[in-house]
Design goal:
The radius of gyration is 20 Å and the shape is elongated. Strand 28 and strand 29 form a beta hairpin. The protein has two domains: 113 residues, UDP N-Acetylglucosamine Acyltransferase, domain 1 (3 Solenoid), CATH 2.160.10.10; 101 residues, UDP N-Acetylglucosamine Acyltransferase, domain 1 (3 Solenoid). Helix content is 7%, strand content 35%. The chain is mostly beta strands and 232 residues long.
Length: 232
């Protein structure tokens, strides 16, 4: 069954908006800071640990679990999501996903469809993550679509990156392995595997697997030889 859309989440929310005051009071007694309870909604099924701050115009829904010392909001929606300690969600939507420790999400990020964001990850402005896993210390800070992709540890995703996961009939998955560098405005056409320590030049379109320690560039992307020539 498909997860509920953000539109259905808010449709259901309106029926219960005024019924959660006592739950928020209990959270405050536990050590949660809610900056403005009049503009905040937290479902009774939500658990939040002490030291976490919830900023105004934030909605935390479903079976969400938020650990200690997080900053949530302002203007964020969290639904059926687990957020580990010391992570921050700013002006963003996170649905049916897991956020690890000490990770920063936002502003204006959209994470959905059972995505896993591990520890010390940065997902920045106007980045969408769908059904993907992002490894420790990896970052995608600007204007990217990460769909049906596994990104391992310590990968840098440049601005404007797209994982082209849909061929018009089916969705396909790709993998970017550890320590790789993905240049701005590049596209990978799934399914491909980019192996560890690879470099993808800015503006490249990757349609084939990339081997370890390789540098590729162009449309379609081709390997750069040690002397600087492009492998034709």
């Amino acid at each position: 069954m498909k997860p509920p859309s953000i539109f259905n989440i808010f449709k259901n929310l309106t029926r219960n908006f005024f019924s959660n005051t006592s739950h928020m009071e209990k959270l405050v007694e536990k050590g949660v800071t809610i900056i403005d309870s009049n503009s905040t909604y937290i479902d009774e099924s939500v658990s939040i640990e002490s030291g976490t701050i919830v900023h105004p115009s934030t909605y935390i829904l479903g079976d969400s679990e938020i650990s200690s010392n997080c900053i949530i909001g302002p203007n964020s929606t969290i639904s059926n999501t687990k957020i580990s300690k010391k992570s921050n969600i700013l002006y963003s939507i996170v649905l049916d996903s897991i956020i690890g420790e000490n990770s920063n999400i936002g502003p204006f990020s959209y994470i959905r469809n059972n995505s896993i964001i591990e520890n010390n990850v940065e997902i920045g402005n106007f980045v969408e993550v769908k059904a993907s896993k992002i490894g420790n210390y990896s970052k995608s800070k600007h204007l990217s679509y990460l769909g049906d992709i596994t990104i391992e540890n310590n990968v840098n995703i440049g601005a404007g990156f797209v994982s082209a996961n849909y061929d018009g009939k089916s969705k396909h998955k790709s993998t970017i392995k550890q320590n790789s560098f993905i240049g701005s405005n590049s596209t990978i056409v799934s399914p491909v595997e980019i192996n560890k320590n690879a470099i993808i030049g800015a503006g490249s379109v990757v349609i084939d697997d990339v081997s370890e320690h390789s540098k590729v560039v162009g449309v379609p992307a081709k390997k750069i030889k040690p002397g600087g020539d492009i492998d034709n």
